[in-house]
Amino acid sequence: MTDAVVEVEGLSKRFGAILAVDGLGFSVGAGEIFGLVGPDGAGKTTTMRMLASVMRPDEGHVVVDGIDVLAHPEQTKRHVSYMPQRFGLYDDLTVDENIRFYADLFEVPAELWRQRAETLLAASDMTRFRTRLAGQLSGGMKQKLGLSCALVHTPRVLLLDEPTTGVDPLSRREFWQILYGLRAEGVAMVISTAYLDEAERCDRLALLHRGRLMYCDTPAGLKARMPGAMLEIASPEPRRLRDAVQGLPGVEGVLLVGIGAHVHVDDAAARLPQIAQALAAAGVETTRMETVAPTIEDLFVALLERGEKAS
Amino acid sequence: MRLRRVRAVAVKEVLQIVRDPRSLMIALLIPLMQMFVFGYGVSLDVKHIPLCVQDREASQASRELVRHFGASRYFSAPRPLAGQGEIVRRLDDGTCRIVLVVPADFSRRLNDTGAAAVQALVDGTDSNTANIAANYARAVLSAYSAGLRLDTVQRRGESLQTLSPVDVESRVWFNEDLESRNFIVPGIVALVMAIVGAQLTALTIAREWERGTMEQLVSTPVEPMELLVGKLLPYFGLGLMDAAICLALAVFWFGVPFRGTLFTLFFTTSLFLLVVLCIGYLVSVSIRSQVAASQVALLLTMMPTVLLSGFAFPIDQMPALVRGVTFLVSARYYVHILKAVFLKGSGLTALALPILCLAVYALVLVVLAARAFRKTLD
Lengths: 311, 378
What we know:
The structure holds 2 protein chains of 2 kinds.
Chain A: E1 4-15, E2 18-29, E3 33-37, H1 44-51, E4 59-64, E5 67-68, H2 73-77, E6 80-83, H3 95-105, H4 110-123, H5 139-150, E7 157-161, H6 169-185, E8 188-193, H7 196-199, E9 204-209, E10 212-217, H8 219-225, E11 229-234, H9 238-245, E12 251-257, E13 260-265, H10 268-282, E14 288-292, H11 296-310
Helix pairs in contact in A: 3-4, 3-5
Chain B: H1 3-18, H2 21-41, E1 51-55, H3 60-71, E2 79-80, H4 84-93, E3 98-102, H5 106-113, E4 119-122, H6 127-156, H7 180-202, H8 204-211, H9 214-218, H10 224-253, H11 262-286, H12 290-308, H13 320-326, H14 330-344, H15 352-372
Parallel strand pairs in B: 1-2, 1-3
Antiparallel strand pairs in B: 3-4
Helix pairs in contact in B: 1-10, 2-7, 2-10, 7-10, 7-11, 7-12, 7-14, 10-11, 10-15, 11-12, 11-14, 11-15, 14-15
């Protein structure tokens, strides 16, 4: 990509014997929402911290907005906003005071930040709470306040580490509305998330596992990479279903879902009759069996399993 | 350094202090308590030593001697003892520290030979007090003897001059009453300022780490120097308030004479305050837990100030090596300055050297504190 705002190359970080991030490389363009997904301990937070230049990498390069972060860690901080996973604002300051504090630190002109604060708080339905202490806000409101503080100056890069963990669905929707607005303004965003439905909203995704980048593509592109097909089998007894299906030839993996199970197979046409037969033999009740498009979660499990086998 | 960011940090810190009335109370009450505890607790004067007397003669002369002891403020009212066994018992259980034994032939010997001996038995467990008690006893006795001699001489009609041709007429300056409190209390002001000053800032950075606010703070363009100045300013104000409390107590409650100027006092206090605030800040930067930071700050300020500042134990009397170490203790200079300002009324010129030392100390610590803070999580 030619207009990359964030460029990462060979990024590594070691904590003692553990390689938390291992040779990571990707780039994020202006107006792009880039998602980092992966299980706990995959290295998402460490990567975020290195991008925000609050942690020094052991190896590799990070270039943000044309500036080498390692060589000039302080220069990039003016144009980057970072929202850590843990709520990082002051509980004993009010909503307004928190925003004001960050506006001062980023030296945002008074008229400008007042106007921005107004807009941001209105967009996240927080105007009523301006004089409330941050410590007395709900989890979702705290995160929205965190975002308002991060956006009170006009960043070119926004780094969000699991911003919607513990946030109610309504607040999450408002949160994403704001992010879409920023995308339209050309802000480059890196967001790590444990919610896979949220990953689907990203423009591109990087799948991390044990500090390594397994796959990096658009959600659609990732889905297309999934070999074989996904069968959805509806059943009132999904656990027995899983036990009966697991280990059959051609079955790559089984994931329990709300209505039954998603079964990943190498070839839908060939395996469907075999599976039906096996289930009938085991006496597992099924109501429906069909080929479906894989979700990000299916993909995630399938790709990680394949990655495990490969390594 | 941007003024706006410094102000932002300072305002934030003030809001946090004001909204936590408990910590504010502690910051203002602790020095008050410490002044009282140390002010009354630390005294090097020995007065009202428990005295027992065994008067084996019970003559007019021996009673006169005992009355002399009773009149001295160094001894308690003499408690009469009966036998040898009681002397041992009293010394054992500590009801008396010194026993005066007047022999049965006291006045006879005095009349016959002009010289008589009395015995003083001193409890030597606390060697310092024992020494002082023995010296006081000697002093009372020599005053009594002098009185006797005067009587004799006058009866003979001789001139007084022949008695003691050369006499020292000593006059004590600065602490005329030789009250140990007068030189201890200014030292205690230094001790309290050292402890409280470092405690004020020991928590300020550690708290940000513990509450998780540091991660976001270090991702902003705020510079270490801006953070240092912004954080120190509010505590500097609080520290000056503490200093005012301590100094007012020293003068108005403990009655220590104050002969210097308020300007000298607050100028030097500001320098010392800067030193101890920076010590607390440095500790807070290096130790990311509030409890541990507070303990370490206490240890770093209290121990050297008590032992090596000369606040109670004279530096001149220390072994050369320890004396050398005291030059590294900032409180040493402040204690020296405080005693001089209080008792001698010394001004800036007389105290130029210790003030300079304190200023250099403060400068070095400010630079260290600003450099110690790293804007990274690892």
